[in-house]
Specification:
Largest sheet of chain A: 6 strands, mixed
Largest sheet of chain B: 2 strands, antiparallel
Shape of chain B: globular
Strand order of the largest sheet of chain A: 6-7-8-3-9-10
Largest interface: A-B, 43 and 33 residues
Radius of gyration of chain A: 31 Å
Number of helices of chain A: 17
Oligomer: heterodimer
Structural class of chain A: alpha/beta
Number of strands of chain B: 2
Distance between the termini of chain B: 29 Å
Strand order of the largest sheet of chain B: 1-2
Distance between the termini of chain A: 75 Å
Shape of chain A: elongated
Chain lengths: 444, 371
């Protein structure tokens, strides 16, 4: 079985260090993803393994031989490379290009034989390129060309396959077909596959292990599930991402979230009364808009609760699947009293969370601007036999603002920011005049 | 769609290539015989064939028996014709064959190694080096000879190799020779050496005519000894290069890829550049700077036979020979109506007729021609 050992290599372009102390060891059957942002040294690592860029320090061993002391042709018998982009100016046919993959196996004075053609044909059939074997390479589309290059690598019959973002030009079906094929070879023929991926989900789907590079250094390496975590992604890519195991494909999947722009200003505090996922989108949007956000009361394990956890939003919580107790209700009211705006989403109401409506009512009474989103009519989400409907009517009569959806809410919020600021100042002034005890009395 | 058909056509290709080469060689031989007929003195094809046949041992007896029937006057005329053919026209034509082959072959090699359609035989400064050497020897070396060879030939050869050596060493980075620096150094050295040539032309006086003639390139006064001197360089250079045609294919698709496919890129490049430069130097030392052959012939041939160097190289070599022999014949014919002694340098013809032909061909096939 083939063994590749990279030991403490350091690579430079001129005086710029691009890789530093990179070590990894892979054996046949390993499918290793090389991950990292632009400029982290992924391609350089592949280049040093493929003998294009000799490291200044460290060794790369191919089955115990230093790869730089081997003959070029002997390396090519074992190691094939699919580069990021291939620019072939001459109009060689696709078949000619794939046949070039046989070069290391043919001596200078030989012609290609039937055996070579059989191998080439097989490589072209599995990469779905045989049907345009005779067309000139420079007239093929980007995806077709890339498949021809992959076929050429396969025609080399390598035991190590280096892929440098091999799927950039391919549509989704070709991406999956090619990667399925490579995975198959990796498992059945015990190939080593080292692949640079930009798409973390493709990496997650096919790799058995991964190396994550940051500024030329290995930041994480090992089993995929150990490397591909939201902490590592945040650390290396500076992107928040949700990493979960997919129920259908049983592979890890990554949902990157848009990078958080630094909020323009902490304009005001919004308290969300939500639940069952009705507040999830709003939390992210409000944070991005620069509001500070709180929420409650939410049951632990509720979707909105998990989102709030992820976004590090302060929440008043209740035990899972339990009705709201008086204690949490009071805590929620305290949180509300610190907010400058309250938003009530279209959450369904049962006896368990009816107190959240009363909390909204208390907010209106306190003089905090309160918005009610009515995306779903109350009749369809009132499971309290009319109690919720009545409370909502009361909210309306006491001056809560009703909006039809999130967008309307956001436009109202943006417009009324200044108004809210003034309102908050006034409220603070009033509160200053009241004694602390009186506030809580009033709330009760 | 095309399964087994593709396979069988693939293997038929080798025999198609052989066929192309045989047809081209036959065409070359025919053109040599036709152009032996071209010239001031009218000599019939029958006589030409007899004269040539007399040189070939097997046909010798047959020709002798047919000569036996001639009268003494006719025999004397035949012998005079034999002198014209064998000592004047044939060396010229063989020189054309060799120079055409050499320039075209090295043009293919340079275009392949440099992956640049503008590359030609003179890309490494060989032309300027040869011009420099030749101009010096014309100005300062009159009367000298070098083991029976014309001094200008030896000086041109040495100048060309000197220029190549200079370019190669300036652009070398450690053990590697990056193609881009090689090209740029070639251009720079070319300019530098041509400035010396220009200086020599300014001070040349009466010898200016000789220098200009040499710079344009031609075959007047070529002798067999001149040919034998360069024959080994050109023939051996071409023969060895032929074994590097598959590596040339790999180089043509990119150095990095070629290395991934098992080619020792730097060594192969070195070998090919040295061989091509030797061939070019030998060719220009014989003919002067015949232009355009090393650029145009590979391009035209590529349009005909495709980019695969295993056929492109031999086909270009032969087409280069044919092209130069035809041009030389034209050079002799065109001037004849005006003055029997005036002879155009062949370099004028290659450019005058070659360039429009090239443009015409290009316009027709430029869509399919991406390099």
């Amino acid at each position: 079985m083939v063994l590749l050992n990279v030991d403490g290599i350091e690579c430079r372009y001129g005086s710029v260090k691009v890789l530093e102390n990179v070590s990894l060891s892979v054996k046949g059957g390993d499918f290793v993803g090389i991950l990292g942002p632009n400029g982290s040294g992924k391609t350089t690592l592949l280049k040093s393994i493929s003998r294009t860029l000799k490291p200044h320090k460290g060794t790369i061993l191919l089955n115990k031989d230093d790869i730089y002391s081997l003959k070029t042709v002997d390396v090519a018998k074992q190691l094939a490379v699919v580069p990021q982009e291939s620019n072939i100016g001459f109009s060689f046919s696709a078949l000619d290009v794939v046949m070039m993959g046989r070069n290391p196996h043919i001596t200078r004075f030989q012609m290609e034989g039937t055996k070579d053609l059989a191998i080439v044909r097989k490589a072209m059939v599995v990469t779905n390129t045989w049907q345009f074997a005779e067309r000139p390479i420079n007239e093929l589309s980007g995806g077709e060309k890339q498949r021809v290059i992959i076929a050429r690598a396969l025609a080399q019959e390598p035991s190590i396959l280096l892929l440098d973002e091999p799927l950039t030009h391919l549509d989704i079906i070709n991406q999956l077909e090619i990667m399925d094929l490579v995975q198959d070879l990796c498992i059945k023929e015990k190939l080593v596959v080292l692949a640079v991926f930009h798409d973390l989900n493709l990496a997650a789907r096919y790799c058995t292990s991964a190396v994550m590079l940051k500024k030329g250094k290995i930041c994480a390496a090992g089993d995929l599930s150990e490397v591909l975590t939201s902490e590592n992604i945040k650390n290396v890519f500076n992107v928040n991402a949700i990493v979960q195991k997919h129920l259908v494909s049983n592979s890890i999947f990554v949902i990157p979230l848009s990078p958080q722009k630094p909020p323009a200003a902490k304009r005001c505090a919004v308290h969300l009364i939500c639940g069952a996922g009705t507040g999830t989108a709003l939390m992210k949007i409000l944070l991005d808009e620069g509001y500070s956000v709180t929420a409650g009361v939410l049951n632990v394990l509720d979707t909105d609760f998990e989102t709030a956890q992820f976004l590090k939003i302060a929440v008043t919580t209740e035990a899972p699947f339990s009705p709201i107790t008086e204690k949490t209700h009071t805590a929620n009211l305290k949180m509300i009293s610190e907010a400058s705006t309250v938003v009530l989403t279209s959450v369904p109401f049962g006896d368990g969370n009816l107190q959240n409506l009363e909390a909204a009512l208390a907010a209106v009474t306190m003089g905090i601007p309160t918005f009610v989103i009515e995306e779903v009519p109350i009749e369809r989400r009132d499971f309290t036999g009319g109690k919720a409907t009545a409370l909502l009517e009361e909210l309306k009569s006491k001056g809560a603002e009703f909006v039809k959806d999130q967008n309307e809410l956001l436009s109202l919020l943006n417009v009324s920011v200044e108004k809210l600021k003034i309102a908050k100042k006034e409220r603070d002034r009033i509160l200053d005049h009241l004694k602390p005890g009186e506030v809580s009395k009033k709330i009760k | 769609m095309c399964t087994d058909e593709t396979e069988s056509t693939y293997f038929q290709r080798a025999s198609r290539w052989k066929f192309i080469v045989i047809v081209l060689i036959a065409a070359l031989v025919a053109i040599i015989i036709v152009s032996l007929n071209v010239g001031y003195a009218p000599i019939s094809f029958a006589d030409i064939l007899k004269i040539l046949g007399k040189q070939i041992p097997i046909l010798n007896g047959y020709v002798d028996s047919s000569l036996a029937t001639l009268s003494p006057v006719e025999l004397r005329e035949f012998q005079a014709h034999a002198g014209i053919i064998l000592q004047m026209r044939l060396p010229r034509i063989i020189a054309g064959v060799m120079v055409g082959a050499g320039l075209a072959a090295s043009g293919v090699v340079y275009q392949g190694v440099f992956r640049n359609p503008m590359a030609d035989s003179y890309v490494l400064g060989v032309s300027a080096g040869a011009a420099c050497g030749a101009s010096f020897s014309i100005l300062f070396g009159t009367g000298f000879s070098f083991f029976g060879l014309r001094l200008v030939q030896v000086a041109a050869f040495i100048g060309a190799l000197f220029a190549m050596f200079l370019v190669y060493n300036i652009s070398r980075v450690g053990s590697r020779v990056p193609v881009t620096t090689l090209l740029l150094c070639g251009i720079a050295v070319n300019f530098f050496l041509y400035s010396i040539v220009a200086l020599l032309e300014v001070i040349a006086g009466d010898e200016l005519h000789a220098i200009v003639f040499w710079l344009i390139g031609g075959f007047s006064n070529v002798k067999w000894s001149d040919i034998w001197a360069v024959f080994p360089f050109i023939m051996i250079g071409i023969a060895i290069s032929y074994f590097y045609t598959r590596p040339l294919n790999l180089l043509a698709i990119g150095e990095e890829t070629a290395q991934h496919l098992g080619l020792n890129v730097e060594r192969v490049k070195q070998i090919l550049l040295v061989l091509a430069s030797l061939v070019t130097a030998a060719a220009v030392s014989l003919s002067g700077l015949v232009g355009f052959v090393g650029l145009m012939v590979p391009h035209v041939t590529r349009l005909i036979v495709g980019p695969d160097h295993r056929i492109l190289f031999p086909a270009s070599t032969i087409i280069g020979s044919i092209f130069l022999v035809v041009c030389d014949a034209l050079a002799r014919v065109v001037a004849t109506p005006f003055a029997s002694t005036l002879e155009l340098p062949v370099g004028i013809i290659t450019m005058l007729f070659g360039a429009p032909f090239f443009i015409l061909l290009f316009r027709k096939k430029k869509e399919s021609y991406a390099l």
